[in-house]
Design goal:
The complex is a heterodimer of chains A (about 400) and B (about 425). With about 400 residues, chain A is α/β, with parallel strands linked by helices. Chain A has two domains: about 250 residues, Peroxisomal Thiolase, Chain A, domain 1 (3-Layer(aba) Sandwich), CATH 3.40.47.10; about 140 residues, 3-Layer(aba) Sandwich (Peroxisomal Thiolase, Chain A, domain 1), CATH 3.40.47.10. Chain A is about 35% helix and about 20% strand. The longest helix of chain A has 16 residues. Chain A is globular, with a radius of gyration of 20 Å. Chain B has two domains: about 240 residues, Thiolase/Chalcone synthase (Peroxisomal Thiolase, Chain A, domain 1); about 150 residues, Peroxisomal Thiolase, Chain A, domain 1 (3-Layer(aba) Sandwich), CATH 3.40.47. In chain B, about 35% of the residues lie in helices and about 20% in strands. Chain B contains 13 helices and 16 strands. In chain B, a hairpin with a 3-residue loop joins strand 15 and strand 16. The longest helix of chain B is centred in the first third of the chain and has 17 residues. Chain B is globular. Classes of the chains: A alpha/beta (about 400), B alpha/beta (about 425). The interface between A and B is large, with 73 and 83 residues.
Chain lengths: ~400, ~425
């Protein structure tokens, strides 16, 4: 696999826009403080006083998109459209809504989410259960279908090549990379937006709280450290623009980085009764497969944007799995320290973070391993709750010769 | 290495029959799966008929432990997958590897689980929500449960592509085999009828009062359906090495996006035309090679009119003479599972040379001048079959299936 990344769009709790995101990651502690500070608009704080979430505060879609046509878009759709618009502009494909390069038939989208339609389903369920199903607003019904959000992106940005939504739990956005590569290989499109989005959702938050998976209050919280407090939920959207390397060169695109390999694995739990479970084996197999797919050796990997979120058992299993697949000194940090757990979008934020690291942003906060100079190859991981794991290898725009 | 991908097993859970044989016999006989909804109160919704599965018992297809950890949608998927694997006669050891991909499509996934959770929360408060039920929620669980059922431990992927999800899943699974990322794939799609979805379609004015009559001048809309269609796909090397019976070959598939409207098709069918042409071209064939089209054919005014237009654009002078039929007249619109069940039907047409009918057709529509298969199944050449899925959100996905030996060596190159 080899794909050129030529654009980036980010709507995150600490920065909106590729350049703002990159700049913010020069000071990750400041970014994290910003992400988790301030009042929460998406949850009833009076009922959930301990909630600490990374929310995209004061997000005004109209400021980015104009104020027409937004009425029936839900929060996720607005995030996705803004991130998509930014990414297409960053890639030099569009400006002010007009195509500068490529045609609509050549550009597609692969978008991941895990719980993207949950708020819309809840909104209509509340009407159906408390009032009557005949009062459901038909204009809001499309939002209950999980691929509607990416459908709206296609309509807004006029993307007529394949439009694919992926729901692979926490692994969706990295699995989206494989989907893009597959369709590019078959010439079904020439350019793809790849990534995803997620929102802070009250029903989801309450469910995670019920399962004792969220870290509440002001107790210390750090993904990957054995504090056992749980995750902090985040939200946002991110897309990278990917295309064939030769196509990127041919149109004179700036290449932000390259995707060199993909791997995935699933491991079932030992107990018949279990559904949610961590897997050392799954992490090790997915990461090994990604490194192999990239034509690299484990020793070639300099750092890992890992999936650690504060769930002690999952974080511990991931770090053990990474140690098995790579090398004992590999440098690991989690992007969730600054943006929270974004589930289906986590891989997209992982890619954005990896690009920032390749561009010189500090790898922090370090969970394990040692820095060994300039970063050349980075692994990004996503770890699902059900034993599913996916991994990507990122490289610089130009890299030294591959391992024989 | 060959890039050919073969269908070696089929499974179907539907309102007209459980299992490959019962499903196909019903379609060939033109039986309707429509009946009054029993799964929930339809009282104020204004519509009462759907193609609901009444006789599915999870324990007939899985252990008690498996049934307990799944919602109805996953149960359908696992049951249909077990049928497909049994039909393929593939040894269990050949599935319990990293080289088995599981790709499943859906629209709403475990919709009954979320309804159960939210109903508890809304009416009885957070304390009434059971953690055991929360663990069963998640659309991504569909392929996870299927993979667990067979010990597969490679790729698992869920593609929620609305009414085109089945074609998306089957096409993508075939892509992974062609790319050498898997040797075999268990793939298809699953969907259930839930009150919210039923009410939503009723509020959109899309549901017919009694029956679904695709392409009829007096058509009144769709009937919601449910079920699962699953297939066993194998690389040519894998299938030949184990002496598998080959039912059909997966040709190319075409994807396009209307980028027009979230619920209405493009009035000129631009995306649909592209998807059909790409499926044919990716198979190394010409439009004249197509023998039969398994229609999207929802029975709604807008869809059927546009699909008829698209037939004429794609087939030109043959637009009114290529046989076409809609299974939705019998099994309803099974949403995410629709094109998967219809793909199963396509394979049966290839295997038997029988084109199933569109039932309920009475009055020709001048906007839909087609060679619709009506008045019973038709015996005809069915070596090359197109499976249309022209979905909500402008998601167009068309899959070509063919009899073994018909497709050129260039199949799957695009």
């Amino acid at each position: 696999m080899e794909l050129a990344i030529t654009g980036l769009g980010v709507v995150s709790p600490f920065a909106v826009g590729a350049e703002a995101h990159r700049t913010a990651l020069d000071a990750p502690e400041v970014a994290a403080a910003r992400a988790f500070a301030g009042p929460i608009a998406t949850l009833p704080e009076a009922e959930l006083p301990g909630a600490r979430v990374a929310e995209v505060r004061e997000f005004d879609a109209a400021r980015h998109l104009g104020d027409k046509g937004l009425r029936n878009f839900d929060r996720l759709t607005k995030f996705l459209i803004v991130a998509a618009k930014q990414a297409l502009e960053d890639a030099g494909l569009k400006r002010d809504g007009a195509w500068l390069a490529r045609r609509p038939e050549e550009v597609g989208i692969i978008s991941a989410t895990a719980y993207g339609s949950l708020d819309a389903i809840t909104e209509l369920n509340l009407v159906a259960e408390r009032e009557d199903p005949r009062y459901i607003n038909p204009a809001r019904f499309p939002n209950t279908v999980v691929n509607a959000a990416a459908g709206y992106v296609s309509i807004w940005e006029d993307l007529r090549a394949p439009n694919v939504t992926i729901v692979d739990g926490n692994c969706g956005a990295l699995d989206a990379v494989l989907t893009a590569e597959t369709h590019l290989a078959h010439a079904r499109a020439d350019v793809f937006l790849v990534g995803g989005g997620e929102v802070v959702s009250e029903p989801l938050y309450r469910a995670l709280r019920k399962l004792a998976l969220v870290a509440e209050g002001d107790a210390p919280w750090a993904p990957g450290e054995a504090l056992g407090h749980g995750m902090r939920v985040g939200e946002g959207a991110a897309y990278v623009v990917v295309e064939r390397p030769a196509d990127a060169v041919a149109r004179g695109a700036r290449v932000r980085g390259r995707i060199l390999g993909y791997g995935t694995a699933f491991t079932a739990p030992e107990s018949e009764a279990l559904i949610v479970h961590p897997s050392v084996d799954g992490v090790a197999r997915a990461v090994r497969a990604a490194v192999r797919d990239a034509g690299l050796a484990p020793a070639d990997i300099d750092a890992v944007v890992c999936a650690a979120s504060g769930l002690e058992r999952f974080d511990a299993a991931e770090l053990v799995g990474l140690g098995r697949a790579l090398h004992p000194d590999v440098l690991c940090a989690s992007a969730k320290a600054y943006g929270g757990e974004t589930f289906g979008a986590a891989g997209a934020f992982g890619l954005a973070t990896g690009l920032a690291w390749l561009d010189g942003a500090p790898v922090a906060p370090v969970l394990c391993g040692r820095a060994r100079g300039r970063l050349e190859h980075i692994v990004v991981t996503t770890v699902g709750f059900y034993g599913n794991v996916s991994a990507i290898v990122l490289g610089r725009a130009t890299t030294p010769e591959r391992h024989p | 290495m060959s890039r050919r991908v073969f269908v070696t097993g089929l499974g179907a859970v539907s309102s007209v029959g459980l299992g490959r044989r019962a499903f196909w016999e019903s379609l060939a006989a033109g039986r309707s799966g429509a009946s009054p909804v029993e799964g929930f109160e339809t009282g104020s919704i204004g519509r009462t008929i759907a193609c609901e599965i009444k006789d599915f018992r999870a324990r007939d297809w899985m252990t008690a432990a498996e049934a307990r950890r799944m919602g109805r949608c996953s149960q359908f998927a696992v049951a249909a997958a077990r049928m497909a694997v049994e039909d393929a006669g593939i040894p269990a050891a050949l599935l319990a590897t990293e080289r088995t991909a599981v790709v499943v499509g859906t629209t709403m996934g475990e919709a009954d689980v979320i309804r159960e959770l939210e109903s508890a929360w809304i009416h009885r408060g957070e304390e009434a929500v059971k953690t055991r039920t929360i663990n069963r929620y998640g659309t991504t669980l569909l392929p996870i449960h299927v993979a667990r059922a067979f010990g597969a431990h490679g790729m698992t992927q869920t593609l929620p592509a609305a009414c085109a999800a089945g074609n998306y899943a089957i096409g993508f699974a075939a892509d992974q085999i062609r790319a050498g990322r898997a040797d075999v794939a268990i793939t298809g799609a699953s969907e259930i009828i839930e009150k919210l979805q039923f009410a939503g379609f009723a509020r959109l004015g899309a549901i017919a009062p009694e029956r679904c009559q695709p392409f009829d001048k007096n058509r009144k809309g769709l009937l919601v359906g449910e079920g699962a269609g699953m297939m066993m796909l194998e690389s040519e090397e894998h299938a030949r090495a184990r002496g598998a019976r080959i039912l059909a070959e997966i040709g190319g598939y075409g994807l396009a996006c209307d980028a027009h409207h979230i619920t209405r098709p493009h009035p000129e069918g631009e995306g649909s035309v592209q998807a059909m042409r790409r499926a044919i071209e990716a198979s190394g064939l010409q439009p004249d090679d197509v023998d039969f089209v398994n229609a999207h054919g929802t029975g709604t005014d807008a869809n059927d009119k546009v699909e008829a237009l698209v037939m004429h654009k794609v087939f030109g002078a043959r637009g009114a003479s290529v046989p076409i039929s809609s299974m939705k007249s019998m099994i309803g619109h099974c949403m995410g599972a629709a094109s998967a069940l219809e793909a199963v039907s396509c394979v049966e047409s290839i295997a038997t040379g029988l084109l199933p009918p569109t039932i309920g057709y009475e009055t020709p529509d001048p906007d839909c001048v087609l060679d619709l298969v009506t008045g019973g199944a038709r015996r005809a050449k069915a070596d090359v079959v197109l499976n249309n899925a022209l979905a909500f959100g402008g998601y167009d996905a068309v899959l070509l299936l063919a009899r073994e030996g018909v497709l050129p060596d260039t199949v799957g190159r695009r």
